[in-house]
Amino acid sequence: MSLRVSTIGLVAAVVALSIPAVQAAVRPVYIGSRACAQCHEGAEMGRQYAKWMSTKHAKAWATLSMKESAEISRISGLREPPQKSPVCLGCHAVASDTEAWERDDLFHIEDGVQCEACHGPGSEYANQLTMRDKVAAAKAGLRMPNERFCMVCHIEKGSHTAVLKSEKFEYRKYLAQIEHSITAYGSNSGGPPEPKLVGPEKARRLIGSLACGKCHEPAEKGAQYSVWRMGPHAQAWSILSSNKGREMARQAGVPGEPGESPKCLACHSPGALLPAAETYIPDEGVGCEACHGAGSDYAPEAIMKDRKAAVAAGLQMPKLEGCNHCHLNAHGRPFDAQSAFAKIAHPAKTTQPYAQPRYLNPLRLAERPGARELFVTFEAAGSVGVVDIATRKKVAEIPTGTAPTGIAFSPDGRFAYVSNREDDTVSVINAAARKVIGSVKTGGEPHGLLTDKDGKLLYVANTMSGDIYVYNTQNWERVRVLSASRGPWSMALSPDGGSLLVTNTYSRFTEFRKPRVAEVTVIDTSRSTVEDRTVVPGANLMMGVAWHPSGEFALTVLNRTKNLVPMTQLTQGWTITNALAILWKDGTVDELLLDEPNLGFADATDVTFTRDGKHALMTSSGTNRIAVVDTAKLLAVVKRATPEERAKVLPNHLGKSAEFVQTYLKTGASPRGVVTSADGKLAFVANSLDDTLSVFDLAKMQPAGIVDLGGPKEVTVTRRGERVFHNADITFRKQFACHSCHPDGHVDGLTYDVESVGIGISPVDNRTLRGILDTAPFKWAGTNPTLSRQCGPRLSVFFTRLLPFTADDLKALDLYVTTIQRPPNRYRPLWAPLTPAQRRGKEVFERTRKGNGQEIPEDGRCVSCHPPPYYTDRQLHDVGTKQSFDKEDKLDVPHLKNIYDSAPYLHNGMAHSLEEIWTVYNPYDQHGVTNDLTKDQLNDLIEYLKTL
Amino acid sequence: MMRTRTILAKFAALAPLLAALLLGTCWVQAQATKKLPYIYTQWKNFGVADGLPSDHIFSVKADGDRVWIGTEGGLAMYNKKTGKMKSWTTKDGLPWPAITGIDIDKSTGDVWLALFGGGIARFSGGRFDHYHQLNSGLVNDVVYGIAVEHDNIWAATTAGASRYNKVSGEWTIFTEKNAPMEEIWNYNVSYNGAGTVYLAVWGSGVLEYKISDGSWKEYLDPDGEMEIDLYRDDGIVQVITTAVAPAGDGFFVSTYFGASRYDGRHWRGYYNLDSGVPSDFINSVKARSTDEAWFSTDKGLGVLTDFDSNTWVSYRMDPKTHHGKATVYKDREVLEEVETETGIPHNYVIYAELDGNDVWIATSKGLSWGKGSDYYPRLRDRGVVSGNLAAALPAAAKGGE
Fold first, then answer.
1. Do A87 and A217 lie in a common domain?
2. CA A479 – CA A482 distance, rounded (Å)
3. Mutate to test the interface with A, among B127, B129, B133, B153 (most CBs of A within 10 A)
4. Is the CB of A940 inside 8 Å of chain B's CB atoms?
5. Which of A320-334, A391-405, A564-578 has the highest mean pLDDT?
6. Which of A40, A315, A791, B103 suits A380 as a labelling partner, its CA being 20 to 30 A distant?
7. What is the pLDDT of residues A611-636, one digit of tens each?
8. CATH classification at residue A907
9. Highest mean pLDDT (candidates A291-305, A586-600, A801-815)
10. Are A815 and A852 in the same domain?
11. What does the mean pLDDT of chain A come to?
């Protein structure tokens, strides 16, 4: 073979001379497959490197450029392009979860699944001295993979099966395909060949295809490098080392190894015989420069942008004659240059993924003060629509951040403020100019936002981080971070401006199997401090809130989930009832159900008052209705009741809504936000799943039209699934939808007693639906192998209590569920370096030895059961958390992606914090060996876990 | 209301003098004037009968009209405007009864509590949030002191210092691994409001943490002797420190073997034998300025009122009469002694909180509010007050105005 003496060689030499590194303190780094090839390419080593080059492993990264990969990514709920996605790269490349310092300069992620994917980072063992001593090599990090290791990536993935229709992976069968033992190849070369240079030295030098790929890889440029990498040209060199290649060489009369024959190399690795820069590696076979000429002079971007200059600098455009030179009648085969040329076409244009319509998903809306305009957040489109109230037409659409959710105006109507839930920002919009003029960073997942009465301060509720940021709107300085409860959601300012109510959508943590309590955080706007925390007993998923014009009380909507009783319990409304709460200004609370005896008001979402305060309008996103509440009758019901009735009867009484709900009005699909117009005549409801606004005449309390916001009219399968997910039609008495327990595709933070295993047995913590497609099996017991089973028969039997979804609905639902995306990780922006604490935590996560040097059994290591990229091995394990009322001891290993935002933890939600998993519930080191960790090490581990 | 022991015992003998005062005669002014410090003579004491959960008072923090009081049995809040006391015990959701430290997050009004054996807690809008070594990254539940620094909450514990960032949620532990902590038993933590956090560490003196670059600086006793202090003014008098009170570019530090003042360049040590500090066993220190520091000792309260002249006032309670006694010292020379009907409730003083011109004194037998409505800093020319006249002195006379 003829690898040139290059940096690799120097590195290898240095490594070979170094003392074998077996000290535990040394952190090995990835050196890349070409460094391995220094020893593992020779015939006496079985041409292992060339063998790898010809496998799918070597193309694994390049395949991520395929449009199928984009589709897999989409239906897996991944938000990044596959070649940028940590999840995809976790199996299609090596060391993708490492930082730059953990990779040698000669390591290239583009090489796909290379040697170190299986054998571990090589810097400490990749020297002859160590490698000749298996024990020493193992101590230095050399890993010999087993089936369990391989199956972390090769386990069946629903996403891949759906798109690629691939057959089930059979370990033994595929192991044979990558077999690369030394003995499998006869030795006849007598040692690594010396580099050979043929022909006169020329001024222009080869730079290697990888260098070309730096500019020619992006998807918008046709992913040209990946296209080449997947093609036969990229394997032209490695094929010489195959048995077939050797046989053909023998037939052609080539003596010795074809990989060392100038005759073979002339066509299989033409660059091997030409002058080259250090970046060029002959193993790339027939690379870009084989057709386009040596690139040293034309490769600079400035030259390439000037075609004439590029040509003058040596850029060639290949001609069929050039192809014929090598291919025509090669090895006795005919060659059709025209069709072959078409096969390797690699136009510099975007590879189109499966096209998807761009829906809007209007969520919240607000009328601009002083202008007859509604501003509506379009969650899915990442924009805000402007609707002219008079004409009822959308007149503008303003791009914002990702997942715009809440909207509020400055009192003078000059500025609109929009919370971008997945960007953690607030966009500041010049309302008249229809233009975003800036944005400010918020806490995690901002939802509701409002200004104080004079507009000097802006309050933003950060749902994920559980706090409320207060900004000075003059200079956008963050002046306060107020502690909310769990999931601060919506806001309402009292009519006098003195009190700001913030609903919290999740219950506070309560003792295990104790009733939950939700909190309304009360802010004194004169001091911008928390004045009180109103407790709403039994409430969860508390969302919209509005003050009555009198200032005497406010209304909020919520779920009263009966998660502590078995789901067989049907009395007074079954598992989830839907309610309103009256938040009196003195801090007391009354709750009344909005459900009727035979018809639920599923997913009560938002509330507003008519301007005269006589009515309150509430949306039910699960039943596509609004309820018109007669305020006077509502108050009368409460005042007639005794204190005991108010505490115990009204919150659970299905018959009371008939006494205060004046009427129900039909809306579009999945109504969310509701507002009344400033003139008091109209109400508008944002129908999130048909991209319309419903308009209601408040004088007549009747529908008064629809505003088409301009979303696609096509209903895709995914869109259909999204509607099924949010609709309660499937459940008994329409009491809840999938969305009721999984708001925003996430969790409601509750533990349920699902009687499938017996009443009172095995209560289970709710688990997120975000990005779970490839984390099967499902359920804590791991008994559901597919989402279809989870959402189909099981849902029908244990949850919805009606006929199961139709086949089409189920298919659509499954597809939608898989596409629910995880928000970007709040603790580590994509590819950002780790903080020192996170870096130390990663070492703990991956450690193989305890603090005293004792080896940790494989099953006691974090990374064994939680391997990347999803950080689950998708197996069942006993981690010692079984309680007396639990049936199973072995539990499905949950993935750890965005683990920070799905508390509580463990199968029954008994751990309220990540710390408690180990400080309280791992006394015998069954959930990983952790009891030797010092407190600071545990803190570091948790900091790292939060980055996954 | 201040009265003298003599007034109580010999009211009749005082009648002529009172008459003279009523006539506008100022007997004191007839005395030779000296430069003397302000003396707190108006004390109001609080105990269980006044609504405190316990009369073992560990900590006090003033926040405008509200004064937060940490006791062995719970938390209390005294409203100076209304005169009402409100308290919280474990029955009210307080996570742990013994509160050894209190600090206020000025930006939110939240109250942070150091719980002796129970971790730390945030009291906000009527809700207690509990952070302990099992449910959070707090290094240890035995917490002596707590300080709010920007978005960070610092806790001094027996196993190191913890820092909690309330915005990011990150916990950082400082021990011998990442700080010059020869011992990890942290007795107190304080923030100077200007970028520096101080830790008082048993056996490790004072540790200074610069927020800007995360660097540490240690202040140890240069002579290295635990039993004796060879050179008084060479550094901290002892490495077993109990508290640091930031002042100017430096700080005051209390130890169980005396105290020290550091101005950023020079050191000055203080002992009972050469100053007005009542005892070398000092539980804590608070500073009003670089000139004035309040030392809480096991034998009373010692106040350095003027650094330059080494003038002190000590406040003690007479165990026999339970009346108060303030003694003015220059070095160790007694310049003045004033007796008051009410003084601090017990001589075992644990903590002093400075509240504008007022002071709050936490003792092992109750809380005391010293009212300083006519307070003046450092020294002023005024007549020496003899014990039986103090009650009658008008404020202007005491202040030399």
1. no
2. 10
3. B127
4. no
5. A391-405
6. A791
7. 999 999 999 999 999 999 999 999 99
8. 1.10.760.10
9. A586-600
10. no
11. 89
Within 10 angstroms of residue B359's Cβ, the number of other Cβ atoms is 26
**Domains of chain B and any CATH numbers:** 46-372 (2.130.10.10)
Nearest chain A Cα distance for residue B205, angstroms: 23
Mean of the pLDDT values across residues A376-393?
A: 97
**Half-sphere exposure for A768 (CA within 13 Å, toward CB):** 25
* One domain, residues A171 and A50: yes
- The terminus-to-terminus CA distance of chain A in angstroms comes to 42
Angstrom CA distances, B377 to A453, B102, B288, B316, stand at: 43, 26, 9, 21
In the structure, what pLDDT confidence band is assigned to residue A7 with cuts at 50, 70 and 90? very low
Within a domain: A640: no
Q: Are A805 and A813 in contact (CB under 8 A)?
A: yes
Residues in CB range of A542: below 8 A, 6 or more apart = A489, A503, A504, A505, A518, A520, A536, A556, A557, A558, A559, A581
Picking from A181, A213, A243, the residue at the C-terminal end of a domain is: A181
A517 and B CB contact within 8 Å:
no
ipTM for the complex shown = 0.85
Q: Running along chain B, 401 residues long, what does each successive block of 10 average in pLDDT?
A: 35 38 38 87 97 98 97 98 97 97 96 98 97 98 98 98 96 97 96 97 97 97 85 93 97 97 96 95 98 98 97 95 94 93 96 98 98 95 68 39 27
User: What's residue A142's pLDDT?
Assistant: 92
Show the tokens assigned to A779: 């359920």
Average pLDDT in the A739-759 region? 84
CB contact under 8 A, B136 and A943: no
Per the structure, the complete domain to which residue A83 belongs is given by 1-181
Alpha helices in B3-105 (DSSP H): 5-9, 11-22
pLDDT tens digit string along A146-165? 888 899 999 988 889 889 98
Q: Select from A464, A483, A523, A528 the residue whose CB has the most chain B CBs within 10 Å, as the one to mutate to test that interface.
A: A483
**Judged by CB atoms within 8 Å, which residues 57-76 of B form the interface with A?**
none
Residue at a domain's end among A786, A819, A852: A819
pLDDT value at residue B390: 47
Identify which of A786, A672, A669, A789 has the alpha carbon closest to the alpha carbon of residue A725.
Answer: A669
**A478-526 confidence digits (pLDDT tens):** 999 999 999 999 999 999 999 999 999 999 999 887 888 999 999 999 9
Same domain, A102 and A10: yes
Provide, as residue numbers in chain B, all residues whose Cβ is less than 8 Å from the Cβ of A919. Answer: 133-135
Q: Do A529 and B109 touch (CB under 8 A)?
A: yes
Give first-to-last CA distance, chain B, whole Å.
21
Peptide bond into A404 cis (omega under 30): no
Interface contact B83, partner A, CB < 8 A:
no
**Is A548 among the domain residues?**
no
- pTM for this prediction: 0.88
Facing A530 at nearest CB: one of B125, B172, B177:
B125
Structure tokens at A620: 């039910």
Looking at residue A334, its pLDDT comes to 84
B166–A483 CB contact, under 8 Å:
yes
- Same domain (yes/no): A156, A242: no
Whether B122 sits inside 8 A of A483 (CB atoms) is: yes
Neighbours of A79 (CB within 10 A): 17
Number of Cβ within 10 Å of residue A343's Cβ equals: 10
Which CATH number characterizes residue A77's domain?
1.10.1130.10
Q: Within 10 A of B41 (CB to CB), how many other CB atoms are there?
A: 27
Q: What is the pLDDT of residue A240?
A: 87
Contact pairs from chain A to chain B, CB under 8 Å? 72
CB-based contacts of A588: which residues, under 8 Å, 6+ apart?
A: none
Residue A233 has pLDDT above 80, yes or no: yes
Cβ distance of A939 and B172 shorter than 8 Å? yes
